[in-house]
Amino acid sequence: MRFELLLLAHFIPHLLADEDRISTISTKYVVSNQKIRFFEAYTRCRQYGLDPAEVLSEADERELEEALKPFNEIGQYEGFWIFATDLGDKANYYWLHSNLPLFYSLFLDGEPNNLATENCLEVFQKSSGIFSWNDYPCDLKLRFVCQRKQKVASSCGENVLITSYLRCRQYGLDPAEILSESDQKELEEVLQLHKEVGVANGYWMFATNLVDKTTYYWLNSNLPLFYSAFSAGQPDNAGNRENCLEIFQHSIGVFMWNDYPCDTKLRFICQHKLKKNAKSCDENMVGFDLP
């Protein structure tokens, strides 16, 4: 098999203080009773052999709420850290583990408002069984949620954009980016083997305009689209929900780009990690080649 798959991590330290007992209701999420600061909680998840919790979809949110049901406290002061912050970009929240923007969110009305240095993300119960998100000061103490490391089932099949992005990472690869015409030509050579035509038979490449509705950025490098090969009239954000980027075969041998709903399942493209060329070059230039 070409890729080595990640195994699910089960290790949690046995010698925990009473206040740090772990509740494991969900198959994915693990909830700690201990109240600690945001970045301390992030580190604690790592120490447990877990990942800091991220909520990338409505399905994730439902599973998180199931994990939080045993905790009955109401209100923002009784919330739980989930691990996104706007400290790197005051205009937008990003998940710390995957570096993805918030494709899905469940903020309370009027939030996030960054009141009094509120730069970190909590989930809390606003009424019995009803959960919302809120920005909260990172140096205050809340309980926190970790998640089990996710196992990759297969390198085949179709996935929504977020899942595809994470799978590239799990395979030790980078999500595909097309930064030049030569990149486009190289990708087309790879795709020549596939004969399906039309936007419904495309492949995810990893740019989105979810952060800035007017501009597409590559998720891995955070670069804008210096080069593009959009089909005529695209991107058009049809239905106000086409915020992610696919490449598809417009006609046999002719490949174009299109904006497409991020929650649609497509095949996807990863790329080998680029490494710096050791050969000397102009001091203001950096060369790259493939391994």
From TrEMBL:
For whether the record's keyword set contains Secreted, the answer is: yes
InterPro entries linked to this entry = C-type_lectin-like, C-type_lectin-like/link_sf, C-type_lectin_CS, CLec_Tetranectin-domain, CTDL_fold
Task: Indicate the segments forming the C-type lectin domain, all copies.
Answer: 29-147, 168-271
Pfam families xref list: Lectin_C
Q: Looking at the record's lineage, which domain of life comes first?
A: Eukaryota
Q: Which UniProt keywords apply?
A: Disulfide bond, Lectin, Secreted, Signal
Which GO molecular function annotation, any one, does this entry have?
growth factor activity
Q: Which GO terms describe its cellular component?
A: extracellular space
Q: Where is the signal peptide?
A: 1-17
SMART domains per the UniProt record, alphabetical: CLECT
As for subcellular location, the record says: Secreted
Spell out the PANTHER family in the cross-references.
Answer: C-TYPE LECTIN DOMAIN FAMILY 11 MEMBER A, TETRANECTIN-RELATED
What's the protein here called? C-type lectin domain-containing protein
The source organism is Rhynchophorus ferrugineus
Q: What is the lineage of its organism?
A: Eukaryota, Metazoa, Ecdysozoa, Arthropoda, Hexapoda
